[in-house]
């Protein structure tokens, strides 16, 4: 397994299975006071990365994608072990990581800049030129536990394509997939110093993001951590995905069977640990009871249990503590008047798909991101009311709407305050090439390979005076 020769200072951190608590590995912890040495290595990596041709960067990324594809089952099994995703979901994540790296290789080859038409403007007729896309330098990438392979690929792929060095700090709960990805990039030809992996807690992260040598912080995680990064980062670029609380609108003219199937998947995929997972379903009153009954019946068919079992639909949350927090949030909503339709029977880190209705608008499960297999059903009288309720939240990534009317779909797409609106699909659809990020308080910048690549590079203009004279 890839490791960086840095002062440890804080010992080893075990990595445990969320399902049974078994220790599956461990990582060396990097002390916060080792950040200077980390950055010395990163500065060497910055010089090396800048010197790599676009062909070399693309070759590394394509080569790593090929190796992961060849070893897909091993990568998927590792995701199951450390993150608790079901084997079916882990295989899908592995396939997406392959695609993310290939998309990154394509950006390295194609997105080099453009010609600038200087002579199109009076006074510049004798000039010609272009702009190139140049690396920022050193990027700090901080990744969460819920997609331990593909979200790391979304940081590393565009950064490498753009000629940057990276200091990667993966979640201490799921660092092994990240380490194996870096190992694979090195095997595919990436010079080792281009990516430096550090493992540690908040103190290490704070020291890293505040370092002047770091020119950009790319962070996926919680609001409080995002706020702390913004306060301490100083003058550097920030790209943040801080979560969501996705609404899906189901209108009376929708295909209810399709809506039920998509919303069940959207709500409970990855045990609800999904920043674009469906959390609030707003159903037009005329079909509310039919949708509710079908949704609950379909939810009851989901099997919760061992994520390595091919028959399991919903695995554990990342920890027993996370499952207990979800249980407490639901209990608070029930105490406030919500009605339980199914679920809410915790067994350690396992928390079955849980469906609520009549949830007060002041309840945390309505206002905040649950990040658990919990969904709220709400009847509404009109599209206008649905949009108003959907937009109540101060942060937003994705939304969805089910309707057979193109006019109503487009009206909703215009008015829903979200970074993406999925029509006749649940909120959790994402294609790795599309721009991905939120509105309002939920995000800063955009991911999606091309868009992350452009965030991680900077234009340089070259203008030739007297050309053609």
Descriptive account of the structure:
This protein has helices spanning 35-51, 54-70, 72-83, 87-110, 150-161, 176-187, 202-210, 223-232, 256-268, 288-300, 320-335, 364-367, 383-390, 406-415, 449-455; strands at 9-16, 23-30, 113-116, 127-135, 138-142, 165-169, 195-197, 214-220, 237-241, 246-250, 278-284, 339-342, 354-357, 374-380, 395-396, 398-402, 420-423, 439-440, 443-444, 457-465. It is an alpha/beta fold. It has two domains: 12-242 and 442-463; 246-431. The strands form five sheets. It has a seven-stranded mixed β-sheet, sandwiched between helices. The protein is globular, with a radius of gyration of 23 Å. The chain starts with 8 loop residues before the first strand and ends with a strand. The model is unreliable at 1-9 (pLDDT under 50).
At a glance:
The protein is an alpha/beta fold and 469 residues long.
Name its key features:
15 helices; 469 residues; 22% strand; alpha/beta; six-stranded mixed sheet; seven-stranded mixed sheet
Distance between the termini: 60 Å
Helix content: 25-40%
Count of separate DSSP helical elements: 15
Radius of gyration: 23 Å
Low-confidence sequence ranges: 1-9
- What does the main sheet amount to? 7 strands, mixed
Q: How many E-type strands?
A: 20
Strand content: 15-25%
Please, what is the average pLDDT? 95
Oligomeric state of the chains present here: single chain
Molecular shape: globular
- Structural class label: alpha/beta
Count the domains: 2
Set down the secondary structure blueprint.
Layout: E1 9-16, E2 23-30, H1 35-51, H2 54-70, H3 72-83, H4 87-110, E3 113-116, E4 127-135, E5 138-142, H5 150-161, E6 165-169, H6 176-187, E7 195-197, H7 202-210, E8 214-220, H8 223-232, E9 237-241, E10 246-250, H9 256-268, E11 278-284, H10 288-300, H11 320-335, E12 339-342, E13 354-357, H12 364-367, E14 374-380, H13 383-390, E15 395-396, E16 398-402, H14 406-415, E17 420-423, E18 439-440, E19 443-444, H15 449-455, E20 457-465
Parallel strand pairs: 5-6, 5-8, 6-7, 8-9, 10-11, 10-16, 11-14, 13-14, 16-17
Antiparallel strand pairs: 1-2, 3-4, 4-20, 9-19, 12-13, 15-18
Helix pairs in contact: 2-4, 2-6, 3-4, 4-5, 5-15, 9-10
């Amino acid at each position: 397994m890839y490791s960086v020769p840095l002062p440890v200072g804080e010992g080893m951190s075990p990595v445990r299975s969320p399902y049974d608590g078994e220790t599956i590995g461990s990582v060396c912890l990097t002390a916060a006071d080792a950040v200077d040495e980390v950055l010395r290595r990163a500065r060497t990596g910055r010089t090396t990365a800048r010197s790599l041709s676009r062909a070399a960067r693309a070759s590394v990324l394509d080569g790593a994608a090929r190796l992961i594809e060849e070893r897909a089952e091993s990568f998927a099994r590792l995701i199951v072990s450390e993150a608790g995703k079901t084997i079916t979901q882990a295989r899908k994540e592995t396939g997406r990581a392959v695609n993310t790296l290939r998309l990154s290789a394509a950006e390295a080859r194609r997105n080099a800049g453009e010609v600038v038409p200087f002579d199109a403007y009076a006074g510049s007729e004798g000039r010609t030129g272009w702009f190139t896309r140049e690396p920022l330098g050193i990027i700090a990438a901080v990744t969460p536990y819920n997609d331990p392979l593909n979200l790391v690929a979304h940081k590393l792929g565009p950064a490498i394509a753009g000629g940057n060095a990276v200091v990667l700090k993966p979640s201490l709960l799921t660092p092994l997939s990240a380490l194996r990805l870096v190992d694979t990039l090195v095997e595919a030809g990436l010079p080792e110093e281009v990516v430096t992996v550090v493992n540690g807690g908040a103190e290490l992260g704070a020291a890293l993001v505040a370092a002047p040598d770091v020119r950009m912080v790319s962070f996926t995680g919680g609001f409080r951590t995002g706020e702390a990064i913004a306060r301490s980062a100083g003058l550097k670029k920030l790209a943040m995905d801080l979560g969501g609380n996705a609404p899906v609108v189901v209108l009376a003219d929708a295909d209810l069977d399709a809506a039920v199937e998509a919303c069940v998947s959207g709500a409970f995929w990855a045990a609800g640990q999904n920043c674009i997972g469906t959390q609030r379903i707003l159903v037009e009153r005329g079909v509310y009871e039919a949708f509710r009954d079908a949704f609950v019946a379909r939810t009851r068919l989901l099997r919760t249990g061992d994520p390595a079992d091919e028959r399991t639909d919903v695995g554990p949350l990342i920890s027993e503590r996370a499952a207990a927090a979800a249980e407490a949030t639901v209990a608070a909503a029930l105490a406030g008047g919500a009605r339980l339709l199914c679920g809410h029977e915790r067994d350690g880190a396992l928390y079955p798909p849980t469906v609520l209705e009549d949830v007060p608008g002041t309840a945390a499960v309505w206002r905040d991101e649950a990040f658990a297999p919990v969904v709220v059903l709400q009847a509404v009288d009109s599209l206008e009311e649905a949009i108003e309720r959907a937009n109540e939240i101060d942060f937003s990534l994705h939304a969805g709407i089910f309707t057979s009317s193109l006019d109503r779909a487009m009206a909703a797409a215009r008015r829903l305050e979200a970074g993406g609106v999925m029509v006749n699909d649940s909120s959790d659809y994402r294609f790795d090439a599309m721009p991905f990020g939120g509105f309002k308080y939920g995000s800063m910048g955009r991911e999606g390979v091309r868009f992350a690549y452009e965030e991680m590079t900077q234009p340089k203009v070259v203008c030739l005076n007297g050309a053609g004279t």
